[in-house]
Amino acid sequence: MKKPFRWTKTSISEIGEVDDKDKRRLLLWRHNLALIFITFFGVGFCLISSILVTAFSNKSNIYFALLSNLQTVMAFLILILVPMLVINMAIVDILSHKIKKRKLDNENKDE
Fold it and tell me: Please, which domain of life does this record's source organism belong to (predicted)?
């Protein structure tokens, strides 16, 4: 069975049956992550290119350009951190849902 994430050791089949709700949840997170990547990295590319254009058009030092564009640098750091946070939220949401489902299945088997 295909693993939900490459770096996890468990696959969906090891955790339990996959119903339509789980598939929709995975599909929704994939679409959200794709939109976030496109948006944030597109904007991040524009920010980086604006810093480089500023540095080379003024023929100044790159560190001076970074300091003069401190707001742009902070925005770029936020653009890096927000997708990482959303990815972690997606992983925690999907895996915690699977663990809850597995616990419920185990309780039903015990009865």
Answer: Bacteria
Tell me, what DSSP letter sits at residue 4? S
Structure confidence by residue, pLDDT tens digits, 46-102: 777 777 776 676 666 766 666 667 777 777 777 777 777 777 777 777 777 777 777
Intra-chain end-to-end CA distance of the chain, in Å? 29
Domain that holds residue 44: 20-106
> What is the number of structural domains in the chain?
1
pTM listed for this prediction: 0.39
Q: Is 4 a member of any domain?
A: no
Q: Is residue 49 part of a domain?
A: yes
Residues whose CB is less than 8 angstroms from the CB of residue 8 and which lie 6 or more positions away in sequence, other chains included: 95
Alpha-helix runs per DSSP H in the chain: 12-15, 20-57, 62-68, 70-110
